Amino acid sequence: xxAGRHLKQQAVPLGLLVLSKVTAHATVLLVEDVQVAGEFYxxxxxxxxxYFDKNPTxxxxxxxxxxxxxxxxxxxxxxxxxxxxxxxxxxxxxxYVEDVDALHEExxxxxxxxxxxxxxxxxxxxxxxxxxxDGYVLAFGKVLS
Length: 145
Hints:
Strand content: 25-35%
Radius of gyration: 17 Å
Oligomer: single chain
Largest sheet: 4 strands, mixed
CATH superfamily: 2,3-Dihydroxybiphenyl 1,2-Dioxygenase, domain 1
Shape: globular
Structural class: alpha/beta
Order of helices and strands: EHEEEHEHEEE
CATH architecture: Roll
Number of helices: 3
Strand order of the largest sheet: 1-4-3-2
Number of domains: 1
């Protein structure tokens, strides 16, 4: 959670006083077609995409800055977006960005499927959402000061 967010902090259990630094995170999304997912994230969202050399139809990963997402395809396993279980638009990934409005304008210009307008939320963020070809919803936002 970025600085400025006010959450109730909990004590660190004894013996865990020194924590290793976490430097990045990657969410893995189950997709129908790794190639289609990669092309969408590259063309519509501006990510760099790399397909797994040994099996490019099974796995790929994409990043934009330090935001990473991986795509995996398995026979007889369908995508499982949160918005299916918790409609109408529960997100699957929340991405913190510096300039929400500029990114909204960029992604709209790229032809991404944007859900609604840029909004200031009750929970203190300015954000918008995008749906990918497998139905996953990405929220792009910034904590309001």
